[in-house]
Amino acid sequence: MGLGAFAIALQKRVMQRRACLPLAGAVFAVLLCAVGLEGEAQAQFGPPTVASVNPNTGPMQGGTSVTITGTNFSGATAVRFGTSPAGIGTVDVTVTTPGGTSATSTADQFTYVPAPALAPTVTNINPNTGPTSGGSSVTITGTNFSGAAAVRFGNNAAGSFTVNSATQITATSPAGIGTVDVTVTTAGGTSATSTADQFTYVPAPAPAPTVTNINPNTGPSSGGSSVTITGTNFSGATAVRFGSNAAGSFTVDSATQITATSPTGVGTVDVTVTTAGGTSAISSGDRFTYGLVGTTTSLSSSQNPSSFGQPVKFAVKVTGLSPTGSVSLFDGGVQIGTGTLAAGIASFTISSLAVGSHSLTAQYSGDSNNAASTSAALIQTVNVPTDSIKLRAMQVSVTPMIAQMSGQAIVGAIDHAIDAGFSENPQALTPNGAGFSFQTALGQPAAAPTGSGGNRTEGRMRVGAGAGTQRAVQVTAGSLANGLQGGNGAPPGTRLIDMPVIPLPPGSGMPPIGETWLSSDELVAQFASGTTPQQIGSIVQRFGLTIVAQETIGMLGRTVYTFRIANGQSVREVIRRVEAAGLPVAVQPKYTYRLAQDRNNPNTDLGDPAQYIVNKFQFAEVHQITKGDKAVVAVIDSAIDSNQPNLAGTVSDRYDAGCDTSAPHPHGTGMAGAIASHGQLVGVAPQANIIAICAFGGAGQPESSTINIIKGLDYAIQRGAKIVNMSFAGPRDPALAQALQIAREKGILVIAAAGNNGPKSPPLYPGADPNVMAVTATDESDRLFNSANQGKYITVAAPGVDILVPAPNGALQFTTGTSVAAANVSGVAALLIARKPSLTPEEIRAILVRTAKHLGYRGINPQFGAGLVDPLKALELLTSYMQEQDGVRRFLASPDASSKYVEDGFSALGYARDDRLVTKTTRPLAAPSRDWLAWIDVRGADFNRNTFGSDSKGTQVNAIAGLTRKFTPDFLVGVLAGYEHFDYSSQAFNGVLKGEGWTAGAYLGWRLTPNLRFDAGGAWSDILVNDAAGTAAGNFIGHRWLVTGGFTGSYGWRAVLLEPSARVFALWEHENAYTDSLGTLQTERNFATGRASGGVKVSYPLAWSSTMNVAPYLGLYGDYYFSRDDATIVGLTTVPLLQGWSGRATGGVAMTFGHGALSAGGEYGGIGSDFHIWTWRARGTVAF
């Protein structure tokens, strides 16, 4: 039988049995049906084969008509597409017949493909209107919204949107105008527009006006009063009404004020204003009353205060509606004059007022249009006679001076008595070229002399040997200014980088109250060495945190984590909980920092290279010495445009510390240009290399964070930068503080902007960090930039106002702020590094401070620091130092007479020699221990002050004697008695004041350590004073109480003794009342005054003989005088004679012999002030 006949017969039998079924959803080229011929077909045919499948792709849900071509399909019982008719991926199509199942091959493969996404449709917007300002919550209804990528209102993206379901989106409308189509965009496309998707912006209605005040609020019934109406929303006012009557006229002065003319009317009415927004609602504040016009009466004096008998003219002014009539003048309740108004003014001339204070008022009686009124009280003072005033002024000005001189005499006597009491057995000290030799008396313990102990050399502690005692020396934390080491977790004298493991930042990481420069939901954490990942994970889970980032910081030797707070707690609350748990972690806020630039004015048309800094910094001379050749400066800032023509070839390295894809920014480009421009513009160090570290990114004003800045600084250290410029500011950051200290320890100078938050701003960091050099800004005339921060941390100043620097894309810009000032100083530092690459940060700072041009108040001040940097002087100083350096080294390496090298005891900071240089001799001085000391102290003072209104001068002598009893070697008490005589005069007061006084007191001394003692004392004095001024004279008695306390140290250094001290005394004086010769009562008076002092005395003991020492001495002290006085001087202005800061220098010679001592010396006080005090002093003591 032929194949065609077989197929026809087979089909006929299948149809007869109605068993022919489509296989696998496909149309088969030969329909195979189960007709009971299986055995027959198997006997006649071999296994089937599939040669092709057409089409060979179709959707995953199936249903595609497929033609399968091959052989031996007769009797087919099954066709399979992989394992199921609907599937995914590529599958083999197989045919099964009685002869078997087709083998798989690439020809039988069928691929399922996903159906394309459907485009969204928008069918409804609700609500479909909203304000032009945006912010409406809108529900969008439609289809195919799943995976929506954008929602737009016209051309503007929605403020935000949420896909609620495939058929609904909730969106926030942006700002806009008119009617717009709302469209939704998904992977399937953007919805087509229609009338159903339209949203209409409607303008907000104009607000109604309000009236808050009417002035004046009264006027005559005839109208015509000019009335000022105050309120809100007056713009475009169309009507002003007084009750139901329209104003005669009105003018809209502003949105908050209208000037109107009142119409005729009666009674009290509401004044209303009408605009497009409506008519103002009535209130008590809008009322106007017709009737008598309110008036105001004022009273003034031609002379106040006045003297007794002096004619005084009193003027009365009445304001209202052309007031007429009379006014009366009253002294208290007594009428002293009547006058008639002329043009609203009346006047009185009176000379009969008695001495004292008078409360005067003027009363206006009113007229037919104006109401009566009374003036405010005028306090007229009639003074006592001028000479009585001067007499009082003399007393008030001079007696605090007398008290100060006496207080200084008593305090000085107590200090000397206690010092002598602890030195009742004098030791003979002889300089021996290596310190002191001293003699110890029989029966006394072998102890080091005052001043022995540990010494600091080159910033490190060295403990002396051979003295037999030890003492603790307190070392402050290291800083760029003091050159010491320690701090931020490192012990005094130790560098962080020398520690086996850098400790966690010490102290609490809690931010200050009110600090806002931080992330509200992120923290920065560092874990102690040895903390496992499991422990970190446990801490993260315990406190509701998630890890945002973790960065390994090479200079810290550990990973720094950034956590996000996931449980809604505040940053302060999480820090409090973590620190309270006592875990091995330092946690702090993620602080933010902002670029310290006040303004930035790009001007691409400004091609003039005439930068005023070129002349101010003397570039012509400076660049003949060096141009900063290859000095490496890292600039941690925003992105720098390295293609800027002025920076061509300058950027030698780049690092992204958190900017991502930020475009070149004017700030970073400008800072790099200030340092190293070398094209149309000239930078401070035009041949320096810049490492461009981008740590400030983001749109708008770039910001950075703790971790970005630390990463940038770490990279700068790794890449060999010697200078790091940080032209930004923010809060203090414990983690950054450690990194800055490490940078200094590695020899890197960090220069930062002081900040642009103004003189009242708290310190900003990193500029205020002790390991950083802070720079402020000045203008072309060396005036301080008015927005610059101020404080003790300011090191130097540099030009920072209207500085011409490069901008991105080849442009130029003017920039102002402490940012560019810091960059200019970084350029100067690069010049020094190029000249001498081995310079340390401390040396660079010292050179810049020493050579700076002083500006502002004397000394290093909070405004300019040491002053304006001077690159030329700095380079000249460095050059001079380099030329002399070899000679200095040879000198330091040469031995002295004792075969010790000079270098052993040399320190640029002037620290002391080793204690091991103090040696004992065996020569005895037999001296019994004496517990009593008698002493006398005589002091004479000459005072003068030449200030307008206070030209006082005078002399004073204080003689004080006392007796001291030492109960233990370290504790003594004493008593004193004294006499004083004084004589002062003043040409301004035409007066003299003289008198005498007697004093009694007590004191104690307590030696806390061999080198530190505490003093305290008190005294009571009575004084009798005679004073005169012109024709006035009198006398009075005063009582004075004094208390004092202080600390005094004693230290040996090389061949001298150093005695630093800090002391304060305060006294209170009461002076009795008296009546002077002119009959004026001079009231009682109380005042307080005192002085706080600190300084050092240096003495050089010499052995005059075996039993007598001579020690010349010099001392320098800073004094702060303070006073308070309850006295008031009518008619004459005075100022406290001693108030504020001044300096004081002392000098003299002291002699000790046997069991006694004598000293004589002088003192000059008032240095830097407008007063001068010359003092001589003689003292004597004897121990028994």
SSE topology sketch:
Blueprint lengths: L2 H15 L20 H7 L4 E6 L2 E3 L7 E5 L6 E4 L7 E9 L2 E2 L7 E5 L7 E6 L2 E3 L5 E7 L6 E4 L2 E2 L2 E6 L2 E5 L6 E8 L2 E2 L7 E5 L7 E6 L2 E2 L6 E7 L6 E4 L2 E2 L2 E6 L2 E5 L6 E8 L2 E2 L7 E4 L5 E6 L4 E2 L4 E8 L6 E6 L2 E7 L4 E6 L5 E9 L8 E2 L3 E6 L2 H36 L7 E3 L4 E3 L16 E3 L2 E3 L55 E10 L5 H10 L2 E9 L4 E8 L5 H10 L4 E11 L3 E4 L9 H5 L2 H7 L6 E7 L12 E6 L9 H11 L12 E8 L6 E3 H13 L4 E4 L1 E2 L4 H12 L3 E5 L19 E6 L15 E6 L3 E4 L5 E5 L1 H18 L5 H11 L19 H22 L26 E2 L11 E14 L7 E16 L2 E16 L4 E19 L2 E18 L2 E18 L1 E3 L2 E16 L2 E2 L5 E2 ...
Parallel strand pairs: 2-7, 9-17, 19-27, 29-36, 38-57, 46-48, 46-50, 47-48, 50-52, 52-53, 53-54
Antiparallel strand pairs: 1-3, 4-5, 5-6, 5-7, 8-10, 10-14, 11-12, 11-15, 13-14, 15-16, 15-17, 18-20, 20-24, 21-22, 21-25, 23-24, 25-26, 25-27, 28-30, 30-33, 31-32, 31-34, 34-35, 34-36, 37-38, 39-40, 41-43, 41-44, 42-43, 44-49, 44-51, 45-56, 55-56, 58-59, 58-73, 59-60, 60-61, 61-62, 62-63, 63-65, ...
